Amino acid sequence: MVKLKGFDRLMATGPKRSTGKIKQRQLGKASPGMISFLLIGPAVIYLFVWMLVPLAMTIYYSFRNYNLIRPTFTGWAGFANYAHVLADPDFLAAFINTLVLVAASLVLTIVLGLFFAVLYNNEHVFGRNILRTFAASPFFIMPVVTGLIWSNLMMNPSFGLLAALWRGLGLVPIDFLAHFPMPSLVGIVTWQWTPFAMLVLLASLSGVPEDLKEAAGLDGAGAWKTFRHIVLPQLARPLYAVVMLESIFFLVIFGQIYVTTSGGPGTATTNLPYYIYLQAFSAYDIGAASAGAIFAVILANIVAIFLVRMIYTNIQEEA
Q1: What is the DSSP string of 178-192?
Q2: What is the pLDDT of residue 89?
Q3: How far is the C-alpha of 37 from the C-alpha of 32, rounded, in Å?
Q4: SS3 state of residue 21
């Protein structure tokens, strides 16, 4: 009878344990998704609110009469702010300057970044580790500090380094920011962002299979053909990523312009972010500034969609 009682007790507790294990297993299957939501959800919600609230306020004020020096002039404006911005010749100049700045800086940073990446990837370059460190340092300088370095230490026509170099050559120093404002600004942006392209491409070059380059050399391909047909196709995806990220950042350049040219001379270096700043803090027209910001958001989304589609198409073709 004791054995039967033990057996009965074992049979009675057996199904309960198995049922508990099944429930625990089912809970374990469902828990990763819940845990992921609990860990990532708050950050996603915070970022969504952080982006959505300012955008909603910008859209709201773009349809309102809101001028800081005319507090009594309020009310619904409709599309008047958008019409005012589109009719403003400074807006057209800022739009063109934005496209020129993005295109020129993008081409120069990609070309120079690729050049330095290939150079510093060569094992025969003396002191390449030290050179890599110095070459990457401009990217870690704040935009305002970059503008101050170039406007005061480099391009100042009185005591700048370039002025001293010009005098040493027997030439008259040039005020680059006054006579060549946009090329000077492109040069400043290129100096700061070339290290970013170099670092990304340099990391990608280390992943290019050596056996492919050796096979190309055995087939009689020179250095240029090996680079053109073997190395460059391997860098397609990193190049697409660099183009997309740099384009987004170049669209919102402000600090370098603020401390170097202040958008001038005239509107020679005024881009869309600086135009919005002038409308809000010089003209005190929050409605027009909000309308200009909406146009800037639309331009940024058009560029982003175009780049994403281009990258996706090229990746699909490679696959």
Answers
A1: HHSHHHHHHHHHHHH
A2: 94
A3: 8
A4: helix
